Amino acid sequence: MHKRARSVSMAVLPLTLIIGLGAGLPGIARAEVCVGDDAGHELCLEAPAKRIVALSPGVTELLFAAGAGERVVGAVSFSDYPVAAQALPRVGSYDRLDLEALLALEPDLVVAWQGGNPREQVERLSRLGLPVYFSDVEDFAGVAGTLERFGTLAGTPEVGATTAASLREEVATLRERYANAAPVPVFYQVWEQPLMTINGEHWISRSLELCGGVNLFADESTLAPRIGVESVLARDPEAIITGGMGKPDSTWLEAWRDFPQLTAVQRDNLFFVDPDLVQRATPRLVEGTRQLCQRLEVARGRR
């Protein structure tokens, strides 16, 4: 049974705004909106949110995609897409929030990253009476559902629904196209020092699977496990993919040429993808998945 957590936005609004909304006056209808979040809570606002603070770059991007961009008044560092997000006031980083700066923005909704924000700081926001939505997107279905819920919370349901429908259609097209693609064993490199990858629960792994890729570290217990070079050599990927530091001439990829016994090196299947397109679970993940699929098609052609 999911815990029911009703958050009332009016508790944190300035008095003048409350009066302007007709709070407490008979005969004034309120358009209450309720959605379920990814923590299993029900979040209810007395009216669509007008001052939203986003606590991860991905959340910021999702809010804009759902048509709520004009209602976002604050974001964490590295919230750089779309361009308009770059001008938003900052409230710290996703892993260390600046609560003073956040509270000064007087938000009527905070969207937290369930798997990344400091739990104690987010819980403090809830105790202060701020409505908090917990976001934890894991796959394309989660992206689409989040777009719809964000649209509802921000009073832009049509935009959220339209964007979600378009995403579902594009994903279905990709899934159909690569449904019978020959499997390609893949190592996806998230980081170099320490060497890190993804397990099968990560959305990048699910995108690879859609393309016919086989994540060689899918059985790891943690979402982004640390591994050793020896583990990569033992599993011998046919393709190695990374976003590196965001540059196509990734030194991370070139470093693998020191191991000529790897099938990926022998066939020159060392591929770069734009990390912003695959390492955030947002609508741009569709384009990132296309890039992954294209790289794996190249690998198949080199057999």
Automatic annotation (TrEMBL):
The keyword Signal applies. Keywords: Signal. The keyword Signal applies. Gene3D superfamilies: Nitrogenase molybdenum iron protein domain. One of its GO terms (biological process) is cellular response to iron ion. Residues 51-300 form the Fe/B12 periplasmic-binding domain. InterPro entries: ABC_Transporter_SBP, ABC_transptr_periplasmic_BD, Vit_B12_bind_prot. Pfam families: Peripla_BP_2. This is Iron complex transport system substrate-binding protein.
